[in-house]
Amino acid sequence: MTKADLARILYEKLGEKMTKKDAADLVNILFDEMKHTLAGGKNVKISGFGNFLVKTKQARVGRNPQTGKPMTINGRRVLSFKVSQVLKSELNPGSAD
After folding, report:
1. Residues near 71 by Cβ (< 8 Å), separated by ≥ 6?
2. Which CATH architecture describes the domain 43-97?
3. Could you tell me which residues are beta bridge partners of residue 81?
4. Nearest to 38 by CA among 96, 9, 94, 77
5. Which backbone phi and psi does 73 adopt, to 5 degrees?
6. pLDDT for 47
7. Are the CB atoms for 11 and 18 separated by under 8 Å?
8. Alpha-carbon distance 93 to 82, whole Å?
9. Radius of gyration of the chain from its Cα atoms, rounded to whole angstroms
10. What percentage of the chain exceeds 70 in pLDDT?
């Protein structure tokens, strides 16, 4: 599913209340806000869907796979996603978690 697909679905569900351009703008605004929030180091929680978590990885010593020599891997922030129990149960009906 793409942002264009989301905008199309939003337009189809609320067509009389907004234009196709308004639907596309709304989807873009939503994702821009999520990006800015995550870039600021804050997590994004969408109830019934899941959590987007910003995690910090510390610098560490690794190994160059070509030479085998030790090297420093810089610290960085990474994004992870943790699915909500509601969505997890919809993805795996009848499963006992």
Report:
1. 61, 62, 63, 64
2. Irregular (4.10)
3. 52
4. 77
5. -100, 120
6. 95
7. yes
8. 18
9. 20
10. 98
